[in-house]
Amino acid sequence: MNLRKAGMNGNLVLLGVALMFLGDFMFALNDAMAKWLVASFSVGQILVIRSLGSLIILTPMIARQGRDALFRIEQPPLQILRVVLTTADVGLFYAAVAYLPLADVMTFYMAGPIYVAAISHFFLGERIGWRRWLAVFVGFVGVIIALRPSAAMLSWPSIFGLAGSLAFSMTLVLARRLRQTNDATLVAWQTVGALLTGLVLSIGNWRSPSVLDLVAMLALGVVAGTAHMLITRSLKLAPASLLAPLQYTLLIWAIALGFLFFGDIPDAQIIVGSIIIVFAGLFIFHRKNLTGSIPKDAVARDGH
Questions:
Q1: pLDDT, tens digit, for every residue of 82-135?
Q2: Which ranges does the record mark as transmembrane (predicted)?
């Protein structure tokens, strides 16, 4: 009986890993679609239609939990800050991929766990030892290398990518502070925030999309929402300590899809920087796993 139970648990863990891989792939596909769309449409217009696509996924979830749950939220000021940061994250990501290869922008975002480790020390009171501080420092070196230490470091696309990754990291930290708020409520408000921001940004920048373009922009929200649910489900089936490092497959997908659809080939500095960032992030996960359980919100679930 115990062997049978162990076998069932093992299968559930494998299913969780498979769902994480699929969710990460869908997020990467979503990012590639966004890069294709920002070549022709404004960030504001994409935010508006993408948000409407997200509501296709969210509406049944909100209906199931009841509308009252949307307004029973903890710490409203932090909720507002999170909406601002998630909107900034998505908008800055789209602005960055309009000019940079997917792999370049994703490299900045892969530094998220490194930023989270540093930010959590100051804002959540989580103690990290000297080994993890060293990994944080090494990870920052990787970011600097990826930024290409030159005048290009100050280019707007690089700044957008870096600022977006910092905003993304702050949303993960806030997710720990707002852990009593369920996923559907969090995502609903960040979708509303993106919709309103997109409406403002698209004033004077609205272009009539073709049916294909409209479907693609709606699909951004649907694909991201589906990926979010897949990853949320995976976290219920497998330990976060096992799943968290798998988010680095996003970088592999970004390189593959960037080459396949846009002919982008990462240069040496991006490759070296990304390798350093990944190793630093994996070390932080490893140390966290040794010293305590990795929280589920350490896994990137936001999606763009």
A1: 999 999 999 999 999 999 999 999 999 988 888 888 888 777 777 778 888 898
A2: 12-30, 36-59, 80-100, 106-125, 132-148, 154-174, 186-204, 210-230, 242-262, 268-286
Q: Is residue 183 part of a domain?
A: yes
Nearest to 35 by CA among 84, 83, 86, 106: 106
For the chain, how far is it from start to end, CA to CA, in angstroms?
Answer: 44
**Using CA atoms, how far apart are residues 173 and 127, in angstroms rounded to an integer?**
14
Residue 190: inside a domain: yes
- pTM, two decimals, is 0.86
Q: How many CA atoms lie within 13 A of 134 on its CB side?
A: 5
The structure tokens listed for 30 are 């979503």
Domain count, the chain: 1
Tokens of residue 99, six digits: 């000019």
**Number of helices and strands in the chain (H, E):** 13, 0
The answer as to whether 227 is a domain residue is: yes
C-alpha to C-alpha distance for 221 and 58, rounded to whole angstroms? 10
